[in-house]
């Protein structure tokens, strides 16, 4: 069961939130005036309790509901720190419409320093959508985001980065949903205007009854304008990626009509590079991975990208690229497991 609980926050008194009165995001958004409200939604399963923190900032004037999510993976720090800075900087006075901000969607993964999964149930929140109201903690958080957050959004932005073991080139992405061409066009426009050089579009073949799995795919399926930023890598904060994310978010807020009166000027933007195809190279066998290449490196078809040895140091596999393109992300640490994505090569066709 999910209890909807909201409260103007003092984060230090979260322990008492189960006593508080329920209030849905929809109810908060309906309230009059311009305000900021920090809220927690309690999530409980098998007597283990956690929560989903949500901030709602409502402006004076009408406008879109722009949602920003960080920390679906709690080990991806640049998105989380960028959103912390946005929370400090954004004033309700400067908002048209509303902002919904989830500063850390997976607080257990963040707090316990667990890559990919929630340590309470060992599930990956980003493959749990649309979630379930009577499942484990991760299922319930996905269900809350699906039903409380996405369904109330005009624009949904989910921010990720390379997790603890992932080396990643910053990019902004969306699904190329052909049967919702207007939304896809807006997602592309916001991506191009984000200031991030690489724009990636993924194919969209989901039927209305298929499980969406990913948060921004769920939003795409619900008919919401949805995007994701990927920036940061290998389990560190990296100031340049924090700055890149913040600049991209401000650019998107401004270009969607959500934000006025920004402090910083838009710096001149490099031309955007669109990558509409991806080639995923999977790990053929458990082992130790070696590669001299980094995210952002250009590779050619038939190029050897690295190799995998067994635990005795014997080479078992050369990793060969099937395409010419750019490394969007790769495993950046030695251990690799059969079936994992070892490289994602982006290219245009
Ligand atoms: Zn992630």
Automatic annotation (TrEMBL):
One of its GO terms (molecular function) is metal ion binding. The keyword Metal-binding applies. InterPro entries: AstE_AspA_cat (IPR055438), N-alpha-Ac-DABA-like (IPR043795), N-alpha-Ac-DABA_deacetylase (IPR053138). Coiled coil: none annotated. Keywords: Hydrolase, Metal-binding, Zinc. Residues 63-254 form the Succinylglutamate desuccinylase/Aspartoacylase catalytic domain. Its cofactor is Zn(2+). It holds the Pfam family AstE_AspA_cat. This is Ectoine utilization protein EutE. It comes from Chryseobacterium balustinum.
């Amino acid at each position: 069961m999910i209890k909807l609980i909201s409260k103007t926050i003092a984060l230090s008194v979260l322990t008492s939130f189960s006593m508080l009165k329920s209030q849905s995001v929809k109810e908060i958004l309906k309230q009059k005036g311009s305000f900021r409200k920090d809220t927690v939604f309690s999530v409980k399963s098998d007597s283990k309790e956690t929560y989903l923190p949500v901030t709602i900032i409502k402006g004076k004037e009408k406008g879109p509901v722009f949602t920003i999510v960080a920390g679906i993976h709690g080990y991806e720090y640049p998105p989380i720190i960028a959103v912390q800075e946005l929370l400090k900087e954004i004033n309700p006075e400067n908002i048209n419409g509303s902002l919904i901000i989830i500063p850390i969607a997976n607080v257990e993964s963040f707090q316990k320093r667990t890559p990919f999964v929630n340590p309470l149930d060992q599930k990956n929140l980003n493959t749990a959508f649309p979630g379930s109201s009577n499942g484990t903690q991760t299922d319930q958080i996905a269900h809350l985001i699906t039903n409380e957050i996405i369904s109330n959004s005009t624009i949904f932005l989910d921010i990720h980065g390379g997790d603890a073991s992932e080396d990643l080139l910053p990019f902004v992405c969306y699904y190329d949903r052909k049967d919702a061409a207007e939304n896809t066009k807006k997602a592309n426009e916001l991506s191009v205007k984000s200031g991030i050089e690489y724009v990636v579009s993924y194919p969209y073949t989901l039927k209305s009854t298929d499980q969406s799995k990913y948060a921004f795919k769920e939003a795409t399926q619900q008919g919401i304008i949805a995007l994701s930023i990927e920036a940061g890598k290998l389990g560190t904060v990296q100031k340049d990626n924090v700055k890149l994310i913040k600049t991209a978010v401000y650019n998107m807020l401004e270009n969607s009509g959500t934000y006025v009166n920004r402090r910083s000027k838009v710096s001149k933007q490099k031309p955007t590079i669109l990558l509409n195809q991806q080639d995923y190279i999977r790990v053929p066998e458990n082992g130790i991975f070696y590669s001299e290449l980094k995210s952002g490196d250009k590779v050619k078809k038939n190029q050897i990208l690295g190799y995998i040895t067994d635990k005795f140091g014997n080479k078992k596999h050369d990793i060969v690229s099937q395409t010419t393109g750019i490394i969007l992300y790769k495993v950046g640490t030695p251990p690799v497991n059969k079936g994992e994505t070892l490289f994602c090569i982006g290219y245009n066709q």
